[in-house]
Design a protein that fits this description.
Blueprint: E1 2-6, H1 12-17, E2 23-27, E3 30-34, H2 38-41, H3 45-58, E4 64-68, H4 71-80, E5 84-86, H5 92-96, H6 109-117, H7 123-127, H8 131-149, E6 166-176, H9 179-199, E7 202-213, E8 219-229, H10 232-245, E9 252-263, H11 279-293, E10 300-303, E11 312-315, E12 339-347, E13 349-353, E14 356-362, E15 365-380, E16 388-397, E17 403-409, E18 415-421
Parallel strand pairs: 4-5
Antiparallel strand pairs: 1-3, 1-4, 2-3, 6-9, 7-8, 7-9, 10-11, 12-18, 13-14, 14-15, 15-16, 16-17, 17-18
């Protein structure tokens, strides 16, 4: 079944999108959409029409509603009959038969003149003619109009997508210097844009905020999200935390928001896996931490492509989707020790005999060496100003039953305690 809305309102598409994602814009004042499946959610066709009318009245939309088994019959009913018209399948001529043939969308006006010359006045008169004779005398267009007048023309919807430009600009009546009224404006814009995204099953991967300032250059802020989101509150929170940490720097004259849309993230959670925070909430937490300690101090560790031991950096926004490993056959695995780095490495005093460490003294760790393994000479980045070279040793202490790693710098000969094995 299909429903058609016909009225002088620019919000017909938004009203139709509340009931179906399959919408065709037939004309500037007409939209038709599928209502298949709504009987399970709302009820009968009369109840569906009443619900559409109620939603339209709440939104201030006045439109005629036509419901029929095919889109074109629903369009004919909505355009030519006021109020709500419900046409059960097979009763199209009983309800629309008295309409004049002039309501048919004929591309060739001479075709309607021919029908008038034959004495054809209404759709019922036209539908009574034989299809073969109409096809011989009026061609394919005449046969197509005959099937429309009879309520037998069935076709798929030509789905109309809205523009992919999800941007909103608002010029302010007076300059804003405080954050609270600015957040109120941003909230209204974001709710409107995310509502449009929801209609098209899209989400925002990036948000760009442009603030036109009084007697100053524009302030441009860009926010990259680890997961596509269409949660207006979460997006607003990101902008709020950033503006609290780094204000715009002047009176604001206009506000522009641009959302870069991508397909909505769909993820199936495990039935027996523990629940994890929503990505939007986690991103908000990361942004709050960044506002407190600085954005360069928050992120996920990433190993650097170098041979330097313990070389890593923080990668901002590294909230990747965890991919569950495939089940593997259980096999015997060797014992693996975990190494705990001391950052920064602790300077130590190491005594050697014949070049082999035999005693170490460092804060909280000291004693004689039972077993010493090494040295392992490592070096790298000799072509830069941060070149390094050192000898590493693994030492098992006699009394504390502790295994540690120490290294001696080639330049300077200093000893450092790098960490311990768990």
């Amino acid at each position: 079944m299909f429903a058609c809305l016909c009225g002088n309102s620019e919000h017909l598409y938004a009203l139709a999108s509340e009931f179906s994602p399959l919408i065709e814009v037939a004309a500037a004042d007409t939209v038709v959409f599928s209502i298949a499946g709504l009987n399970r959610l709302i009820g009968t066709q009369s109840q569906i029409a009443s619900e559409i009318s109620r939603r339209g009245e709440e939104a201030g939309i006045q439109a005629s509603i036509g419901i029929a088994a095919n889109p074109d019959t629903a369009i004919l009913a909505a355009r030519n009959m006021r109020g709500i018209t419900i046409i059960p399948e097979g009763r199209e001529l009983d309800i629309l038969g008295d309409l004049p043939v002039e309501v048919l969308p004929a591309q060739d006006s001479s075709l309607l003149e021919t029908l008038n010359s034959w004495g054809i006045v209404t759709l019922a008169d036209f539908a009574a003619l034989p299809e073969l004779g109409i096809r011989e005398r009026l061609g394919e267009e005449g046969a197509d109009l005959l099937s429309l007048a009879s309520g037998r023309r069935n076709r798929p919807l030509h789905i109309t997508r809205l523009s992919d430009d999800f941007s909103s600009r608002e010029d302010l009546d007076y300059p804003l210097t405080k954050l609270e009224p600015l957040l109120f404006i941003l909230s209204r814009q974001l709710h409107h844009l995310t509502a449009r995204m929801t209609q098209q099953s899209l989400a925002a991967q990036r948000m760009t905020l442009v603030l036109d300032l009084e007697n100053r250059p524009q302030a441009i802020r860009s926010y990259e999200f680890p997961f596509p989101s269409r949660d207006a509150k979460a997006l607003l929170r990101q902008a709020q935390l950033d503006l609290e940490r780094k204000p715009a720097g002047g009176a604001i004259l206009a506000v522009t928001i641009q959302l870069d849309a991508v397909a909505q993230r769909v993820r199936q959670g495990g039935l027996f896996l523990p629940g994890t925070p929503e990505p939007e909430q986690l991103q908000t937490l990361v942004s709050r931490l960044g506002a407190l300690v600085g954005p360069q101090q928050v992120g996920s560790p990433e190993m650097l492509n170098t041979h330097r031991p313990d070389a890593w950096k923080l990668r901002a926004g590294a909230l990747d989707v965890m991919v569950e490993p495939k089940a593997e056959q259980e096999i015997a695995r060797p014992l693996v020790l975990a190494f705990r780095y001391f950052r920064p490495a602790i300077q130590a005093r190491v005594e050697t005999r014949d070049g082999v460490p035999w005693r170490i003294e460092a804060p909280n760790i000291r004693g004689d060496v039972a077993i010493a393994s090494g040295p392992w000479r490592t070096s790298g980045e000799w072509w830069t100003s941060t070149s390094w070279s050192r000898d590493e040793w693994d030492l098992a202490l006699r009394k504390e039953s502790t295994i540690v790693r120490v290294y001696r710098t080639i330049q300077g000969g200093w000893w450092f305690l790098e960490g311990s094995y768990d």
